[in-house]
Amino acid sequence: MPKLDDNATQSITKVIAASSLGTLIEWYDFYIFGSLAVIIGHQLFPSDAGASALINTLAIFAAGFIVRPFGALVFGRLGDLIGRKYTFLLTLVLMGGSTFLIGLIPSYSSIGYAAPILVLILRLVQGLALGGEYGGAATYVAEHAPPGKRGFFTSWIQTTATLGLFLSLGVIVGTKNILGAEAFADWGWRIPFLLSILLVGVSIYIRMKMHESPVFSKLKSEGKISANPLKESFQKKANFKMVLLALFGATMGQGVIWYTGQFYAQSFLENTCKLDFNESRYILLWAILFATPFFVVFGSWSDKVGRKWIMLSGMLLGIIFYRPIYQYFIDATNVGEFQKTELVSVSEPVISSEYIEDKADSVITSTVVKTLKSGGTFKEISVQTIHADKTLAAEERKISFADVTLSSVTYWIIIGLVFFQVLLVTMVYGPIAAFLVELFPTQIRYTSMSLPYHIGNGVFGGLVPFIATLVASFQGSTPLSGLWYPIGIAALSFVIGAVYINNKGDSEVMD
Amino acid sequence: MNALKRILGILWIVLGPTIIIFLVMQAIEKIAAATEGIARTNTTLQWSIIIIIFIPICAGLMIFGYYALKGEYDRLPQNSEEL
């Protein structure tokens, strides 16, 4: 093993802590947008566009993910040319700055279409920054870690993506509880964005004190830095074929498992099962809390038994169990059916009416809260249109359900099922940083590992909620149809990974 | 195992354009089914994004299949010197 310079004496604990904190904050910044997509849609998009506001926001959300691979190329190249430390400092500044500015954008009612355009621009900057961050942090930690411990050390970086989500959900739920739902929807949603500037400031201070990666410093002092990392990564067949293998045999499947477990599950519970806003988030928070230590467990275990089969087992379990799990979600929240036999009480109706000016019709909305024998509650919303001539609308009264809360037993079963999904996330995600780092040489590591990671996670994973929702809206589809996307992608990645990838990689990363 | 790797290479080569054709057909169907106005614009935008993203990825899958067919993955590099 080549001799390292004095920088190598830097405590590995400090290296992990400083790298992980910055990456955690970047994930926090990135997630609060996704978690608040509906409110942002109402505030920053045309108010009469209804569902289109949400779709537009989701499109921007997707745009945030789609530009990540470009961020990987831009900052990966920079990281291989000027060093890991300054590159992931830059990504942190860009991410923190753009998040803070999103919190300051005036509403659509104040500045019109400038609002959604500004959101789009800042969201793209966020995506670019995130694309550069992860590869740098993983590379930086891996290049400090001794052989045989790389999976363990880099798994701490892996926890940040989940902890960032945990932090973002915690801040959102906490802010909403303190301010109340109305104030939160009006202006309080800006607080999680504005708070970011403090977190980023602390992280920048800590990262400024870090030294450059010892392996990179050594290469630099020997004049062996790559002159053109992009060319060497993607035009040299021997390396490009490994980039393709990393993408199709690992990161593609890992990405969809991750986003299904940590995002689609919560979105499905809230939008399809009509679970209460807070309840769906608390479920995810508990699941993440219980599952997060397993990133380190599986990362460490991969040092002993190899990375491949742990990751592929996570994919296989997802392929087998997603549909039964989501079917249970639907069955356990079918309040329309439960009320036929389990209804205990019904509250006094709250009636509101809205006059539709252009048609001179009135829409009467009646809301009651119903309680079930099991202890669960839900709102039943009945909407009826009365025409100007006082006749009722020909179509039937529309009844929908909202704000479903669960009985204690069902609540914990669903937490268990979401926990199982996040556990699969830890299996595929815990070892992947070490796997990618060991696949590529130091000169082009940042560039080469960042691209497949961000295509796998940004494109394949990031589009899970978007494509799954799209598929579920097709004619003849069921609420479970959207799952075919993550299941299909995970199955393809599983086959490619099982056939083409070696279980033991190159444990030497100093070359 | 090497024979399987090579045979599957053909599948990956075929799968790339098949996915693109499937996506384009879906896009045409969904755009046509959307009501005129904002809904159609949105649908067109969504599908355009999806197709633009997946074209290079499917091209990558074809290249991956070609490499597999040619035996490039019969033996993976054991260290960075081989890259």
Automatic annotation (TrEMBL), chain A:
Keywords: Cell membrane, Membrane, Transmembrane, Transmembrane helix, Transport. Its main location: membrane. One of its GO terms (molecular function) is transmembrane transporter activity. It comes from the Bacteria. CDD domains: MFS_ShiA_like (cd17369). The chain crosses the membrane at residues 27-45, 51-74, 86-105, 111-131, 152-175, 187-206, 242-261, 281-302, 309-329, 411-437, 458-477, 483-501. It is found in: Cell membrane. It is a multi-pass membrane protein. Residues 15-505 form the Major facilitator superfamily (MFS) profile domain. Signal peptide: none annotated. PANTHER family: MAJOR FACILITATOR SUPERFAMILY TRANSPORTER, SHIKIMATE TRANSPORTER. This is MFS transporter, MHS family, proline/betaine transporter. It comes from Dyadobacter koreensis.
UniProtKB/TrEMBL annotation, chain B:
The chain crosses the membrane at residues 7-28, 48-69. Keywords: Membrane, Transmembrane, Transmembrane helix. This is Uncharacterized protein. It comes from Dyadobacter koreensis.
